[in-house]
Automatic annotation (TrEMBL):
It comes from the Bacteria. This is Polysaccharide biosynthesis protein. Belongs to the CpsC/CapA family. Keywords: Cell membrane, Membrane, Transmembrane, Transmembrane helix. Residues 4-71 form the Polysaccharide chain length determinant N-terminal domain. It is found in: Cell membrane. It is a multi-pass membrane protein. The chain crosses the membrane at residues 21-40, 228-249. GO terms for cellular component: plasma membrane. Residues 436-465 are annotated as: Disordered. The keyword Aminoacyl-tRNA synthetase does not apply.
Amino acid sequence: MSDDTIRLVTIGRILRRRWRLLAFLAVVGALVGYGTSVVFPPRYTASASVLLPGQWEERELLTQVDIATSSTVVDRAAAKLGWTDVSGAELRERVTAEAADGNIIKISGTADTPGRAQRLSDQVAQRFVAFAARIAGGSTDSEAATGPEALRKKVEETNRRITDLANAADPGRTVESVQARTALEKLRTSLEEAMTKLDEADPATDKAGMVVMGPAARPTGEAPPTRMQLTVAGALLFFLLAVIGHLVAARMDRRLRTEPEIAAALGSALLGTVDVPDDRRAHRPEDGGPWARIRRLLGIDTRWDTPTPLGSVDEADRRIRYRRVCSRLREQLPAPRRLLAVVPDGDEIARRAAEQLVAEAETDPSPSSPGRGYPMLRVVTVSVDRPTVPDRDTESGALVVLSAGRWTAEELAGITEACADGGHGVVGVVVAGPVRDRPTRSAGRPADNATPALAVRGEGTGGSA
């Protein structure tokens, strides 16, 4: 796993080098979101408001909200609507209610057309008001239900009795009859006042009389998520998943990126780093099939996590680095000999660096000179999946040339084992890196304009194996 911190520069590099892929995935996500909106038809939501007169506590309002969405109310509304294509269970999922400010219950109904949504919310609101009035006017407790009604009947019967007694009394002929009629009228008045106070004290009377505040307004737009929202959400989701996928892949990447790690994995000494002019075409695969064209079109034929090439250098500076590597290699060898320049297959930067090392070895003095000459190299490309190095013959030793950030420790260990199987010891490691090029300046020695050969001076020309 890479220990590099995920920084904004990493995200910027993803956006810069993978913008074609990200744009393609965003379009795919938009199409998926649009297809989802086609599979699931649009929904419309209408709302009706019910006013609850009187004083209500918050918990009482929440109870009324539960009653408004109860199966009893919704089933009665469904029976009244008579929709055969919607079941009662599905209809209950489409009805919601909430308590608003001012003792108002807002009932919302969702349907596939604006008209049906309006009718659903209106019908549920009406069924809720009727059911609430029934609860307030007729409790399930028989004693509580019959007590006030029985009392009213008794009062009415008493009033009729008082009327009969008043009519039976002598109408104003004696003092006693006048007093009796006056007492009876006072008794009638007292009974009426008592019943009025009883009605005012009844909490059910206070909280009855819920009213629907007009019909629900016909919806003019789709309920969320709309088709546009699904399309935009699909594009954004695919875009974010692509970016996160790149970040996770970079975080889980086990390829070695530093020279000490590479040298330790190969079990040899680092002879130095060399520069290769950056050429994006050199990173592209040579396969010209349809899949390769698609990869090239999406911009995924090259890696996005390769570091940005270092500052511009010229050819003279690069050749100095190559000569220094050859000098260190010569110092490690007891005598001039032929070596294999082992390059992992697919590492174009390393292959070009190995060819440049061959060219530098060609320009060195002969082995009989006081400088003893540079070693003679032959470039060999090996597969990292099943590496195979030629057996020891005229060459005795291997110089591994590769670029950083492309190979894991297991793959490099496989190359070392392949060299050992062929009878070659790894005498050194050279790490190649891309740089930005600039015009050549004078270097004090002529540049080698000839195309570098894969084999150098000695018996035969050799070749890649």
